[in-house]
Design brief:
Radius of gyration: 21 Å
Helix content: 25-40%
Largest sheet: 9 strands, mixed
Number of helices: 13
Shape: globular
Oligomer: single chain
Number of strands: 21
Distance between the termini: 32 Å
C-alpha cells in the first residue's frame, strides 16, 4: 500500500523518515517552517556524537539528593530555573524515578540498545546516498577522566553497557598522550568505544538529507502543522499555519519539542520537556582532540568539526521561550580552553560562537516511537532527548516499516506513548 505521508518536522528524525518512506514507494510532503538543518533546530547544534553506547537515561540512582543544587546553582551542569520549577516538578519526579535503581537503568538500556546499535554504519550509508559521505566518520568515541577513579565512579553505567553488548578499550598514561597529545595531561585514563562514530556538521548533514529526499520526489512546504484532521480513527489531513489543509492519509509527528500538542490530538498525552543545551564553537582552533572526547571532569563533549571545534553539554530546565543564559556557554568555552592548553586563552572573540537548543525529552530518556492510540496512520517519532542524532536512521526505517504494513525490525513496545498513563 502506498500512502501520501505528511512528515511533520525536518530534523534528523523527520529527514530520515522521509528518505525511508520514499524508498518504500510512498508519496511524501515535509512540513517545516524553518530552514532544514538551520540554527533553530535541535539537530543543528548537538555534539555530533553517533554514540551507540548512549543507552542510559540522564537520571541515575541517588540523583534526587542533588535537586537542591540544581536549584541553587544556575551554572551547574544540570540546573532548574526557580521560576519554572513548579511547572517542571511532575516531569522531574518521573525523571528521577526512571533512573532510581540499577534494574530500571538496565531495562532502559535493553530497550535503547537495538535502536542505537550500528548507528555509525547506518549514518554512513545515508550520508553516502545524500552525497555528503565526508560528514560521517566511524573511528570510535572517547571518554576521558583525570584518573581511573573517575571511570570507576561511573562503573554502574559502564557495567550496564557491557551487559547489553557494548565493548570498549581502556587507554592509560602515555598511550593516551600519544593518541591525544593536545589534551591536558591531568587526564590520565580513557576508554574508546570503537563501534561509535561522529558527525562533522549535523546541520549540513540534515540539510543534505532533506535535499536528497526532495531529489527523490518529496515536497517541502515551509509551514508549520497546527493540527490533525481526524474522522474517527482515520486521518484526513493536516491543518497548516497558512490556513490551508494538506490532504493526506498518514502523518509522522517528528517536530521535536513542539510535538506534544499534535500527539495529544492523536490520543496520547506525552510528558515532553525541553532539556535546554548549549554549545560553543571555536573557529580556526590550532589545537584540540584527534577523536571526539567526552570529558568527565567538565561534563561536556568536545568534537572537532568541519566548521570548528565544538564543546557541547549542559542541561537547563526552563521554559521554552526563556532567554538564554550565555554564561552557561562561557563555562563550556572556559573548560575547553583549560582542557586543551595549546589553545590561545583568551580565544579571539570574533572566532567564537554560542548556541542554545532544545532537546525534546521524555522523563525516561526514551523516545516515543509508535503508532498513535487514536489513529494507526499517525506515527509518533519524537522525544529522543540526548539520542536524537544517533537514533535517526533506525527511527526512519521503523517509521517506514509501520506505514508500509511491515513488522518493525526491533521491538518498539518500550517506546509506546501508553507507558506514561
Amino acid at each position: 500500500m502506498t500512502r501520501h505521508v505528511a512528515v511533520i518536522g525536518a530534523g534528523v528524525e523527520g529527514a530520515a523518515s522521509a528518505v525511508e518512506l520514499l524508498r518504500a514507494g510512498h508519496r511524501v510532503t515535509i512540513l517545516e517552517p524553518g530552514t532544514p538543518g538551520g540554527e533553530q533546530a535541535a539537530s543543528f547544534g548537538n555534539a555530533g556524537w553517533l554514540s551507540s553506547h548512549s543507552v542510559l537515561p540522564p537520571s541515575a540512582p541517588g540523583l534526587w539528593k542533588k535537586v537542591p543544587g540544581f536549584l541553587s546553582d544556575p551554572l551547574g551542569p544540570l540546573a532548574v530555573r526557580w521560576g519554572y520549577f513548579p511547572r517542571a516538578l511532575p516531569w522531574l519526579l518521573r525523571y528521577l524515578a526512571a533512573g532510581s535503581t540499577e534494574e530500571r537503568l538496565l531495562r532502559i538500556a535493553r530497550a535503547l540498545r537495538p535502536l542505537l546499535k550500528d548507528s555509525a554504519v547506518l549514518h554512513t550509508a545515508l550520508a553516502g546516498e545524500a552525497g555528503v559521505p565526508e560528514l560521517i566518520e566511524h573511528k570510535g568515541l572517547m571518554n576521558a577522566w583525570h584518573s581511573r577513579a573517575g571511570f570507576e565512579a561511573e562503573v554502574m553505567g559502564w557495567r550496564i553497557r557491557r551487559q547489553v553488548g557494548i565493548e570498549w578499550r581502556e587507554i592509560e598514561g602515555e598511550a593516551l598522550r600519544e593518541m591525544e597529545p593536545d589534551l591536558d595531561p591531568a587526564y590520565s585514563f580513557a576508554v574508546l568505544t570503537e563501534e561509535a562514530g561522529r558527525c562533522l556538521s549535523p546541520g549540513r548533514y540534515v540539510a543534505a538529507l532533506v535535499a536528497h529526499a526532495q531529489a527523490q520526489g518529496a515536497a517541502l512546504r515551509k509551514v508549520a502543522a497546527t493540527g490533525l484532521r481526524l474522522e474517527g480513527r482515520a486521518l484526513k489531513g493536516v491543518a497548516l499555519s497558512d490556513g490551508t489543509v494538506l490532504e493526506c492519509d498518514a502523518a509522522v509527528i517528528a517536530c521535536g519539542i513542539r510535538s506534544a500538542p499534535l500527539a495529544a490530538q492523536a490520543g496520547d498525552r506525552v510528558p515532553l520537556q525541553t532539556e535546554r543545551g548549549y554549545h560553543v564553537m571555536l573557529r580556526g582552533a590550532n589545537a584540540g582532540p584527534r577523536h571526539s572526547i567526552g570529558l568527565g571532569a567538565a561534563k561536556m563533549v568536545v568534537n572537532p568539526m568541519a566548521d570548528g571545534l565544538r564543546a557541547a553539554g549542559q542541561v537547563e530546565i526552563a521554559a521554552l521561550d526563556a532567554p538564554p543564559n550565555w554564561k552557561r556557554a562561557e563555562i563550556l568555552r572556559d573548560h575547553l580552553l583549560k582542557s586543551f592548553p595549546g589553545l590561545p586563552d583568551p580565544f579571539p572573540a570574533d572566532r567564537v560562537s554560542m548556541w542554545l537548543g532544545h532537546r525534546p525529552s521524555t522523563p525516561d530518556g526514551m523516545p516515543v516511537l509508535a503508532p498513535s492510540s487514536r489513529c494507526p496512520e499517525v506515527i509518533h517519532a519524537f522525544g529522543h532527548g540526548h539520542v536524537g542524532l544517533v537514533a535517526g536512521p533506525r527511527t526512519g526505517r521503523i517509521v517506514s516499516q509501520l506505514l508500509s504494513g511491515q513488522a518493525p525490525e526491533i521491538d518498539i513496545a518500550p517506546f509506546s506513548p501508553t507507558r506514561f498513563r
